Amino acid sequence: MFNKAIGKIVRYCRPTQVDEKGVLVSAFFLRKKNLELNRPEDEKTLSVDDFNFYKTDNYKNIKSALLKRMPSAKETGYFALIDYPSSAKLIKQITDVDIDIISEEKSSHCNITNLFGIDERAAVGFVQNILEVKPPKGI
Amino acid sequence: MPYDVYNQVSAQVLAMSYAQKINLLALIANSLRESKTSGQKSSIENRIAVLSENLGEDQDSELFSLSVSLFRSVFPKLITEEPPRLGLDDSGVLVAEWDNYGDYTMVTIRFGDEKQISLVAVKDGRLVNKCVGIADEIISVFNRL
């Protein structure tokens, strides 16, 4: 169960969402629907992993879990480690919305909810609370 | 600059009328601005090339191209000397981002489609501006930030 008071989340960022200065806000935008690419609906939640789900080798285990559910994830992408409570607080300040997080029982995968319609503003709250950026390569 | 050339140029400038000196200053300012703009342009085009090379198979290449051409038409009209950081969202849409832009913590523009360009400006942890519109509206809002 994700601890909302002190928990940390990991978001996989594509190579196009990181530059020499760090992670860009676009890494936290929800994906829009695209019928040609077989996505009939706008994304409603932001997919992340609970950093503390695994007791050891957090990044290594998260990388394995990510590759299982998203085989297209690239080694040239990055993992952004984010402080959840600080992000939630800043997002509330910016958007006046309380985000929430739903964790899966048997995996590190979590979904951040209540972002639909406010994701472009909320993205600032996540990007400002990044604790660490790590390339999956070599983990 | 060699000393004799310096003396020659100094003498020519001293001999100029006030209006000629003003014109010369304007010429120098323009040439500096153009060289800065062209440097900015090439770093932006290099970044767009990197984004294009790294576009994921699950991202929409048509949307990406549309978004880039929209950015290319809007960016020259934004009054700023700071080049944006450029990235793509998961759909493949170009997002321009300025960190610590003047008094603002962050300003972002998402180049969705020509009727759906969106701008977000955050200052001191508060949302200051959020608008969605056509290019002219977004340009007008950005230039007033």
- The helix count of chain A comes to 3
Count the beta strands of chain A: 8
What is the 3D shape of chain B? elongated
* N-end to C-end Cα span of chain A: 25 Å
Largest interface: A-B, 32 and 33 residues
Strand order of the largest sheet of chain A: 6-7-4-1-5-8
**Number of helical segments of chain B?**
4
Mean pLDDT of chain A: 93
Question: Brief overview, please?
Answer:
Chain A is an alpha+beta fold and 139 residues long.
Notable characteristics:
heterodimer, A: 139 residues, alpha+beta, 8 strands, globular, B: 145 residues, five-stranded antiparallel beta sheet, 4 helices, 50% helix, 24% strand
Topology, pairings included?
The complex is a heterodimer of chains A (139) and B (145).
Chain A (H helix, E strand, L loop, with lengths): L7 E6 L4 E2 L2 E2 L22 E5 L7 H12 L8 E6 H12 L4 E4 L5 E5 L5 H9 L2 E5 L5
Antiparallel strand pairs in A: 1-4, 1-5, 2-3, 4-7, 5-8, 6-7
Chain B lengths: L2 H13 L2 H36 L7 H14 L10 E4 L5 E8 L2 E8 L5 E7 L2 E8 L1 H9 L2
Antiparallel strand pairs in B: 1-2, 2-3, 3-4, 4-5
Please characterize this protein's 3D structure:
The complex is a heterodimer of chains A (139) and B (145). In chain A, 24% of the residues lie in helices and 25% in strands. Chain A is built from three helices and eight strands, in the order ββββαβαββαβ. In chain A, the strands form two sheets. A six-stranded antiparallel β-sheet of chain A has the order 6-7-4-1-5-8. Chain A has a two-stranded antiparallel sheet with strand order 2-3. The two termini of chain A are 25 Å apart. Chain B has one domain (3-143). Chain B has helices spanning 3-15, 18-53, 61-74, 135-143; strands spanning 85-88, 94-101, 104-111, 117-123, 126-133. In chain B, strands 1-2-3-4-5 form a five-stranded antiparallel β-sheet. The radius of gyration of chain B is 21 Å and the shape is elongated. The mean pLDDT of chain B is 87. The chains are: A alpha+beta (139), B alpha+beta (145). Chain A binds chain B through residues 14-19, 21, 24-27, 29-32, 34, 36-37, 43, 72, 74, 76, 90, 93-95, 120-121, 123-124, 127-128, and chain B through 47, 50-51, 54-58, 60, 63, 85-91, 93, 95, 97, 99, 105-106, 108, 110, 112, 118, 120, 122, 125-127, 130.
